[in-house]
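pipeline/complex-builder :: batch 7 item 3
reading input block
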Amino acid sequence: MGHRGKVLGLSEAIERYVHDGAVISFGGFSATQCPMAAVHEIIRHRIKNLHVVAASNGQSVDELVGGGCVEGIEIAYGGNGRFASTCIRFRRAVEKGEIKVEDYSNYQMSLRFMAGAMGVPFLPTYSSLGTDIINKWGYGEEDRRQNPRLAPKKLVVVDNPFNVNRQVDQLVLVPALEPDVTIIHAQRADIWGNVQLMGLHFADIEQAKASKKLIVTCEEIVETEILRKDPYRNHILTFQVSAVVEIPWGAYPCAVFGYYDYDPWFLRDLYQKVAKNDSEWQNYLDKYVYGVKDRQEFLELIGKDRLQTLHADKEVGYNPSLNRR
Amino acid sequence: MADYSLQEMMAVMAAREVKNSDIVLCGTGIAMLAAIAAKKITAPEASIFFETGAIDVQFAQTPLSLADPRIMHGAIHLAGLVESFNIIQNRTTGPNVISILGAAQIDIYGNLNSTSIGDYWRPKVRFSGSGGACDIGSLAGQFWVFMELGKKRFVEKVDYLTTPGFLDGAGAREKVGLPGGGPSLVITNKASFRFDDTTKKMYLHSYYPGFTPEAIQEEICFEVDLTRATEAKPPTEHEVNILRTQCDPDRMVLKS
């Protein structure tokens, strides 16, 4: 394999495409398929003032906020399922006023990415009429005038111009998102950046297509011929991708369908504990993020025995005998 | 009479309400057990789906989040968020969708807060935010609420209105143009509530064995009509058995 296509190392990809102050989005949902290797690399590079746009990216958002990389977030859900009803570092940062938040719903954030992917300035929905998502803006109009990373309005309510039979027919227009960079974690890709997603794809496809630059980290780089055998799952294509990074266990401690399960030990016994305490949190970063040179060293720290317990059963896509208690 | 926990009572109360023609949008925790129990007890033909895009899911093991790989294997279709929310907003399928939501606060009209307590811009407590709850409250045919009873939760006015109930009363949803039906049932650890057809105010519908209507009113900041309440039927041995052995055999949600 002489030609390297769009393949880059992780550190190189982050240096090239993720800059201070960027508008950034991450693939995955709660504790599944978050690009955690890339998140740790961003923290290690001490990138600052990121403006994160997210539907429900639990673990990535929380570690990035805790790593001090984030200035503001537009988000639908800052939780992580049964592992954290509210993400712990996210909650602390918002309560202390360290980051600014703009609240949308999951549908709205997905539609905002879809609008970006379609190349239109907004999409309409009936969701949130009459609620504080419409009435209360995290960023006021003045903030928005001064910050080119934000849409000039959070949203706009309009009458349906095609209204024929409903008494009241108002719609909420949500503004398109076009992140400077998106990072998603996939199962497989080829060196050109054709990407195969298995299992649920959350908002990954819309996010990927809305973005100006796209980094795809993946479990395996495979020959294009292998992807051609299953074209229905190749949702993201070479001309959308800026860099491909092969990084096995790249979503750990989150799950990757068909490859490995989430790690209850890391997410509950370790993370929940350290995230609640500022000095323990600093120790966590020093040990697991700053204290290792790359993903390989991080995985050595976690240990082969631990990873062994997470391997997915090929038939069901997770590990049915994993001890989750 | 079966020996049961209040968590099990909540799950069974909800499961009994599901019909075969319903499309159930599933959350996690006890709400999910209720959906699985409905499939196994009352409504085997109901479809269960998740907002993350997993449609007609089978449950070999208890999922811990809306993205758990355990909801992927065996589903009839796997897509993404947009697909699932389209099912709710679509005017043919949306009216058949029922979803069960949790929240930090609820008011007499069934408006929910899952965003923050105190000043929104500098909250005393910050929660996860809407996720799909606002979408469900706005668009689904009906939604049910699962909450623990208590004065901190059943409040005069929610600090942040994340999910629309009946807003400020009769006709308010129609006035802003919300297409969904709004809340129809609130299930707590001690009682269940419904909403008056005319006033849209919450009233006590049933209290669980061992509790009185007066004691339940004590735990609510606003006044509810107690006159229509009857004692709820406790779960049968059969129902409890299915919950424990088939819905959550690993005890990921139910406390053992």
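note: The first strand of chain B starts at residue 23 and ends at 26.
queue -> next item
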